[in-house]
Design goal:
With about 140 residues, this protein is an alpha+beta fold. The protein is about 15% helix and about 45% strand.
């Protein structure tokens, strides 16, 4: 499926690993959001190279109202890591995976060298999801 982000999603940078972000999301309040940018390359095997990562707490009530009205949220000065506004190949899965599972999950998209944002989003009290944004 193709997903078009009309405005970027901004995060404060983090060095936490993918597995640490998944664990943190499971304990966080709904709205917690994290992403890791990887470079995918395919040789004898698929390899992932982490480029950067970020996290953010849920949007405030005021920010949610702005989003509902279609307004862009200005990033805070410390939110320097972003999933940029663009069209992406998109897939959503339960966040029941570890970083070691990512090469297997991303193998169908590895026909060429490319970037992927792996987003971990704590949607509600019962569900945390993992999303792939493939450039």
């Amino acid at each position: 499926m193709t997903l078009t982000l009309s405005s970027p999603i901004a995060y404060r940078p983090t060095e936490l690993s993918f597995d640490q972000l998944v664990a943190k999301a499971a304990q966080a309040a709904p709205g917690y959001d994290a992403a890791v940018l990887y470079r995918i390359s395919l040789g004898d095997a698929l390899s992932l190279s982490r480029i950067a990562g970020g996290e953010r707490d849920g949007y405030t009530e005021e920010e949610r109202k702005m989003i509902e009205k279609g307004m862009a949220i200005a990033p805070k000065p410390y939110e320097t890591f972003r999933i940029e506004a663009a069209s992406y190949q998109f897939e959503q899965l339960p966040a029941a995976f570890e970083e070691k599972d990512l090469p297997r999950l991303l193998l169908p998209y590895a026909g060429r060298e490319r970037s992927v944002y792996v987003r971990i989003f704590h949607e509600n009290m019962l569900e945390t999801v993992m999303q792939f944004f493939l450039a």
